[in-house]
């Protein structure tokens, strides 16, 4: 069972390293193509390779560094509920960070428990903070009879979106994305997926979330925003429903401030990511 007394527990510092090749694989796994050469090549003339900021969620490591403190539960009971990353500056295409994870919250949600893990990554070369991340996991069957009501506000305004964009996913997308580090068989093994209650393997929630970020940043750049990829201050979203590899994603986007956008992602009429929010750092003056 989940150990509810583990709130506040901290992991020992652990090192996470990544390379230019990891950055390329991650971008390809999120569907980046030749129209985003800075994401998918490292040696194109006049094009510097860049890293998508959502990779910080992978570096954060979820609950893994704290599993010996959290207790136990069936592997198929874990569902990624939400994710947020905050960055003081662009994430480099390669490096090493020292990550410390903390159990931030455990809450009863009736049919399961909400587990929130905060992680901070510090650049080993400079000593500066590289990112912070909040990972929310829903653990089915781990509630204890004292459900809490949600209090989070929705950044999506009550009006039509400012723009809508569609993007495909590939039938093999989960098989490629798993090579970025998440080998959960829920995304590759039909038998495991059926035991978990799904008709077939589903796409990683972080993959859908990352695709949404990649497409949104591309659209903002095309719409006149100056270097949105290099200005990401925070990005978040809540996972509402599974995506099957091959589904078409529809992004609906609302500008809510000079440097802020709310967004949802849907498959048809079914919302799969909601409460999405992207905040950019202000443009440098001069």
Automatic annotation (TrEMBL):
Domain Peroxisomal multifunctional enzyme type 2-like N-terminal: 18-141
MF GO annotations: (3S)-3-hydroxyacyl-CoA dehydrogenase (NAD+) activity; 17-beta-hydroxysteroid dehydrogenase (NAD+) activity; enoyl-CoA hydratase activity
Occurrences of domain MaoC-like (ranges): 156-270
Any single Pfam family the record assigns to this protein: MaoC_dehydratas
GO biological process, one term: fatty acid beta-oxidation
Family: Belongs to the enoyl-CoA hydratase/isomerase family.
Protein name, entry field: Acyl dehydratase
Lineage: Bacteria, Bacillati, Actinomycetota, Actinomycetes, Streptosporangiales
